[in-house]
Each structure stands twice: as structure tokens, then as C-alpha cells.
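[step 3/7] fold_predict: job queued, chain A
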Amino acid sequence: MLVSAPAGSGKTVTLTQWLRAESRPGVWLRLDGNDNDPLVLLRCLAVALDQVLGVEPEILELLQLRSPPLVERVLPGLAATVAGARPFVLVIDDAQLVQKQEAWAYLELVLENLPEGAQLVVATRSDPPLPLGRLRGRGELLEVRFAELAFDDDEALELLRLQAAGEAVGGGGAARDTVAALLAATEGWATGLYLASQTARGRAPDEWLPEVRGDQRAIAGYLLGEVLERQPAELQRFLLETAILDELTAPLCAAVTGRAGAGAVLARLARENLFVSALDDRDERYRYHHLFADLLHSRLERLGPDRLPQLHRRAAAWFETHGEAVPAIRHYLAAGDVAATVALAEATVDTMLNNNLAESARRLVRLYTEEQLLTHPALAITAGWVYASVPETRVEELRWWRLMAELDFEDGPSATGAASLRSSWLILMSGNGTQGLGQMLRAAQEALRLETAPGDWRDVAKDGVAWCQYLSGSPEQAERMWRELSRGTTFAGMALAHEWNAGTPAQLALIAADAGRWDEAGELVAEAERLCPRMGLDVTMHHSIFLTMLLAHLRLMSHQGDAGTIGFAQVIDDYVKDMVRNPPGDLLESYVLLGEVTLEQGELVAARGWCDRALKVLAGWPDAGMFGRRAKQLNDALDRRVMAEPITPAEQRVLELLPTHLTVAGLADRLFLSQGTVKAHLRAIYRKLEATKRDEAVARARELGLLKR
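[step 4/7] structure written:
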């Protein structure tokens, strides 16, 4: 069921009443902005389903990992649980707050595996990215829109009689006239009707009806103002001071207002229907109606603008004390206190990235203006890590590198566990390398000197130095450092720790392959794939940490004559196209190795394509070390392999007609040449292409790119 209508249309009330009358077990999942992070939504969805279906405990435990095995275990397990369940109802409320397609894919998984008699209900202000057309075609979609939710005459009359005194409605035909006028003004909008009914109390229709206008915002602004001003002064003050909060709880409201008894005040607001909605069934969490909150906030800005910063600071301090960093940061920023957020934001983003919640980290960074980020070095570095870790931010990332390269980072303290701000910045810049390999190596070496304490940051710095040495053409030094890393427990506190660790034997495998130690390379590839069986191909966010495993696997396949080598090369190419970040060193290595392998396989057209891409990277990154040299060697090898003696323009014209199967006489007529001249061109073409017959010449020409396929 899809219940799609604007705010205040009565979606939640309607579904709540419907669900209470249901005989099937049901669960209600209210979404918020955090659920836009796919992993957060999947965790919430599993917990909700567990209430009615009994999800396997192992699935719930796996979802708490930094990098859950989604493809192998979690998603199949949830699908099987849903498919095998008794009829149930799952209501997804405020679905418009989730925008990510990947997050919706998890809800679609539930939809596609619903057993007979079960029902998924989506309540939203805008249509979700679900296959609605397909569901309509199969007769599996019930749609409830604004027209179905809008009040009719009888419903509006009943509402007025319940909420307002009799004189506000009138009797007989006058009552119907009142309702008709009200419906004409509100168009049946539930919240507008309700607000009008509150203002109508104790007044005759001719007193309040002229004040009701058709514009929803105008209705809400006027009527909410009337309701607010009729409350006692102390209650008005409580309402205004808590208007800055998205969610109301007794402890939080007490901290912000400085008054005891906040729980009793909230209970009174709910009891008297003063535009608060309960967010749980224990009467502990509430929120204001959105329009009411807007009104309260605007009045607070007009009547007490000097109080706003203090209220936001109180809220921020409460959230920070209770370990809720994101709302604390929001309130500090609303108070204009950016400095108070620096260490908190730095540590929070670090934790998010280490728990594979990159989208949440990006949303946090976007709370700041660019000026705020660049004014505080720790925030600038934090933004750099986010832009290097989140999909669809390549333009932001490159722009941020240019800005950060111009900053001067002192050796100040870091809240992330790095030895210093400068060390964190150096590690970040060494992984980017837009200024050349020499700059990468110098940055990585300085970071390693600063990171003296054992731990993830030292491991990352050492890995960076080894990578730069490898690119520079010093594989022996790189091998020594990577072997040191492989002997310890590394990257333990990072997201994708197994994948980071799998990258070390994969790097060593490439070095062994370059040296012709193929048995050793095979053992190292096997170790990398034991640590990361799918080599990152099952992870939605394509990251360069997986690239080494893919390339090492490809080189081993080529050496062993695996028939799937070319197909796997294309898999890697597709992976690189969608990669989160594309430092020139990673791109150059990928294109060179893809070109070398396809050249080994005799796929000269594919090899030429990857070689050209490598040369394009090299043109903008001349300080490229070993792979710069190998790109040029690959280009020279392709030039030699293509043909010892090139096809002349006259021969090319004959060659382009060979696939037509024209006879020699036909070719001569088409080209206005003598048959003797055509025969001479054909002999030269066959000799140069090392072909003995026409079909062989055509196939060879296509392989070399001399003919379109």
C-alpha cells in the first residue's frame, strides 16, 4: 500500500487507526534523515522485522559489524525470513526522508519477498523509487492519495462538532453552509481543518470563517498564532524555548529551559492536543507539528533573538554529554560557536568512516560553510577525508585538494588518534598525489616519522610509504615494509579492516609477479582472497583499496592462461570507472596492468585502448615513476606488435572494402583502379597482415583496429 500525500494530510492518523483494527501482527518503522545512510536503514529494518518475524540473532549481530557480509549472509537471510513468515504488516512512515537508491533497494528486498497475505505500507510525501508501474500492472498496489485523505462534508462537520462549541458550527442548513465554506477554503486539508476548529471555539461562524483563507501557510500562521497567544505565559515561554528542538524529551527540555517538571508540561501539551505528536508508546518522546514549530521559532527570533544562542548552547551541551554528537554540532553551529564543534566533528567523522557510514559523514560535513571549514584546520582535514571516502564527490574532492594544498597545517593535536593534525593532513595528501609522486613520497615519509606510536595511523603511514616506493621503482624497499605490516595485526580499528589487510599480500603478489616468482605470487593471491573472498566486488562503494587485489588476481589469471582473463579485465575496468576516488597513481597502475595483460592475451585493440588511457593520465602526471616508464614501454610494444610495415592510404581504401566480398573486378570498378593495381594492393595487405586469405586479413585488420568491427 502506498499512502502518498502532503504534510498534514492525516497519513499517520489514518494508518494508526487502520493498524489497530488489523488482526495481523504489525510493526511501525518511522524513518528520519539518518536512515538515508543505507547501512543505518538496514539495521533499523532488521530490528523492526525482528519484532514480528523473529530475525535470526546471527543476522542482527552481523549487522553491527563495521562491514557486514551483506551479499553473502545478511540480505539472503532477511529475504528468507520475510518469505517464510506468516502474514504481517510493516508500515514505513516518513519515507520521503530517504533519498538514496541503495537504501530503497533494501526496502524493495522486503517487498519482493513478501509472503501471501503480508503487506508493506509506505507513508510518504513524495512517491518512492519503488517499481510502482510494475506493481500496478500486477494488481499488487493499493494507492491512497490526497483525494482519498481529504475530508468530505460529513467528516468536516463531525470534526467541528467534536472540537468546537455548537455556536461555532450552527445548526441545520447553517451548519452545512459553514462546512462548505470551510472546505472551500482548506480544500479538505486535515491539518487546516483541525487548526480552524481550534480557533472556532466559542465564536460564531461569521466571526471566524472570514479569517480562514485558502493558502495553507497563511491558515497555519494565523491560526497557530491565535492558539499560542491563548496559552498561559509560562506555557508560552516553554513552547518558545523548546521550539529549537526536533525531538522533545523531559530531560532535554529541562536542560534547555532550566525548569523542572518538563515531563508534566509535555504530557499536558499532548493531552490538550497543542500540536505535539508522540514518537513512542511510552509518552517519553514527542515532536511539535512542523508548522507549529516554524511559528514558535519565528516568534522566538522576533521576541528574543538574544536568547537563541544561549538556548542552542544548552541543547548542544546536553546532546554532547549524552553522546549524541550530530545534534550537538547542529546546535553549536546554530549558536554561532563553530570552535566548540571542531574536536567533536573531527572525532565523530572519524568514527563514522571507520564504521562504514560514509554518507552520514558527508551530511555532517555539509552542515558547515566552506569558510568555516577552511578557517579551522581540523575541520578542513576532516572534510578532506570525507571527500576522499564518499561516492559521487570526485569534483568536490579535487577542488578540496587544491584548497588544502595551499593551507599551512601546524603540528597541532588531533581528535582522531593521529599523532597530530599535520600527520593526518600528510597521510591524506600522500594518498592523493595530484602534485606528483615525489610530493606523495615526501608527505608519506614525514607522516611516518610523526606517527611513532603503534596503531592504525602508523600502519596507514607505513603502507603509504611502501606504496610510493613501489610506484617510484623501488620494489625491494616496498616489499620489506609490506612484509613488516603483514606480520602484525594492522588496521584493526578501521572500516574494511580485512580488506585493508588483504591489500598487503596482494601488493606483495604484484611484486612477486614482476620478478617472475609465480608460485609465490599464487600463494599471496590466495592469502588475499582468503581475507577478502569477493575482492571488494560485493561492496557498493568502489574504493581503491580493493584495486590491488583485483589486479593481482588478473595477472595470475593471465599467467595461468585462464580463459576468463579478458572478461575479468573488463570487470576491473568497470570497477575503476565507478571508483570513489581516482588518484593518478591508482589509475596509471590499473591502465598499464590492464594493457600489459591484454597484450599478453593478444587482444591488441583492448590493449591499445588501455594504453591510450594510461598515456592520458601520464600527460597530466609526468612525475609518475615506474608505471610512467611501463606505460611508454607498453606503447612501444604495441607499436612494434601492430605491424612492421604500415598500411598505405591506397591500401587502406582497398582494405576497407574487403568485408563487402566484392570480387577483384568489383573492387577495381568501385575504386576506379585497374584489376592489376587492386591485386598488387591485396598482395601487400596480406603480407603486412600475415594473412593467407581474405577472411584472415579482415579479422586481423579488425584486431589491430584498422577496420571497424
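[step 5/7] annotate
The mean pLDDT is 85.
The longest strand covers residues 119-124.
exit 0
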